[in-house]
Write a structure and sequence with these properties.
Blueprint: H1 2-11, E1 17-21, H2 25-37, E2 42-45, H3 51-63, E3 68-71, E4 82-89, H4 94-101, E5 115-120, H5 131-140, H6 152-159, H7 162-170, H8 175-181, H9 194-198, H10 200-229, H11 333-338, H12 350-361, H13 363-389
Parallel strand pairs: 1-3, 1-4, 2-3, 4-5
Helix pairs in contact: 10-13, 12-13
């Protein structure tokens, strides 16, 4: 449980608080002490404290910056920043669980951030001998809805006894749906709780949503790196390098070539002795303007610098800056990133073609390849920095 609180603190970048609810005074103090020892600022509150202490702690919880509070009860303990409720051991009933959930106020009740975490241990403090007295009291006090008096025991055990809570947490199915059903409210599966996400259909939907989010993050990263690539080569961090000056001098077969720029094909970046291009019919990575034509056959990327033409690319790098030699802002720097892993080969551009052709025909593949290769380049930079430090 302490690790869960630490994970939440590490993962969330915005300001929030955690309300932890447990079943005993000893648990509350012990958990709070452990949280503080692990760097999660915490306070604790139980019903055993005198009223003045309770009021002072509740006031501090509302006004001070502690991340967590650990309590044995929930009524009246509010903080507008509470976004996570953690149940330790159990709750006394479904209504008690709802009270705990209520610590997350409406403004924070967002399905992508607010969460109820249950660390259930099977703990059961109830005294069955007192149940009938409680049921009789509920009847006498008219706490059972009119016309439902004969179902008093059902109401009691479903809503006000640990049996109802135990049924909720131990049975299969959507937790939100079961919680509402215990109050007589029909609903659909929420699709957000851990039970829903474990079902194949919901798991697939969750995975698809995460994939979309990851794709958006990858695109944002690549676009940010494009800004840097306008003024420098991202591989060598040199402003004077157009993407070719830092081509590796050692080939895959072990040969060492001092002048790679003059001895490399400008299309596939592979070793091309005595010239800077393969004969067009020989280089498999040729996607430029065909002889006798004025327009490239490529319409999803620039045939010179290989920038993808995509709606997310900023306007100042759009198509009108391309399709003419020498006008591309990125020179050979994008091509250098895309061909990062194959520029040492010697196969007349066949390996380069295998990388470039999917990229220039599908912007999504272009982004993924750029993202992966940029990541590999950054890792290599870190390794070089660590080597220099050592």
């Amino acid at each position: 449980m302490v690790q869960r609180a630490k994970d939440l603190l590490a993962r969330k970048q915005h300001k929030f608080k955690i309300h932890i609810v447990t079943m005993s005074k000893d648990d509350a103090k012990e958990i709070s002490d452990k949280l503080n020892n692990e760097g999660v600022s915490s306070m604790w509150l139980t019903s055993h404290q005198i009223q003045s202490e309770k009021e002072e702690i509740m006031k501090n919880w509302e006004e001070r910056d502690e991340i967590a509070i650990v309590t044995t009860f929930t009524d009246g303990i509010d903080n507008a920043l509470t976004e996570d409720v953690i149940i330790v051991r159990a709750r006394y009933s479904v209504t008690s669980l709802m009270q705990a959930l209520g610590r997350i106020r409406p403004a924070r009740q967002q399905q992508d951030t607010a969460t109820l975490h249950i660390f259930d241990t099977g703990y059961d403090p109830t005294n069955e001998a007192q149940d009938q007295d409680t049921i009789n009291y509920m009847r006498a006090a008219q706490l059972i809805p009119a016309g439902e008096e004969k179902k008093a025991e059902v109401w009691y055990y479903n809503l006000f006894h640990i049996r109802g809570y135990r049924k909720l947490v131990d049975s299969d199915g959507c937790y939100r749906k079961k919680l509402l059903l215990s109050c007589g409210i029909e609903s659909r599966n929420c699709g957000f709780c851990s039970s829903c996400k474990s079902q194949p259909l919901f798991a697939a939907a969750t995975h698809a949503n995460e994939s979309v989010q990851n794709e958006h993050e990858e695109r944002r990263y690549v676009i940010a790196m494009l800004e840097e690539m306008k003024s420098k080569c991202i591989v060598c961090s040199d402003n004077a390098c157009d993407g070719r000056q830092c081509l590796p001098k050692t080939l895959a077969d072990g040969r060492n070539i001092q002048d790679r720029v003059s001895n490399s094909c400008h299309k596939c970046f592979q070793f091309c002795p005595g010239n800077n291009y393969h004969v067009t019919t020989k280089c498999h990575a040729y996607f430029g303007i065909e002889p006798g034509k004025t327009q490239s056959s490529i319409n999803r990327a620039c045939p010179f610098c290989l920038l993808a033409f995509d709606k997310d690319i900023p306007a100042d790098t759009a198509m009108n800056f391309h399709n003419q030699p020498g006008r591309c802002l990125y020179k050979a720097r994008i091509r250098r990133v895309l061909l990062y892993h194959v520029c040492q080969k010697s196969d007349f551009g066949e390996s380069a073609r295998g990388v470039l052709l999917p990229c220039i025909t599908n912007p999504s593949i272009w982004y993924k390849t750029m993202y992966k290769n940029l990541g590999d380049i950054m890792v290599e930079h870190e390794m070089m920095d660590n080597t220099e430090v050592e």
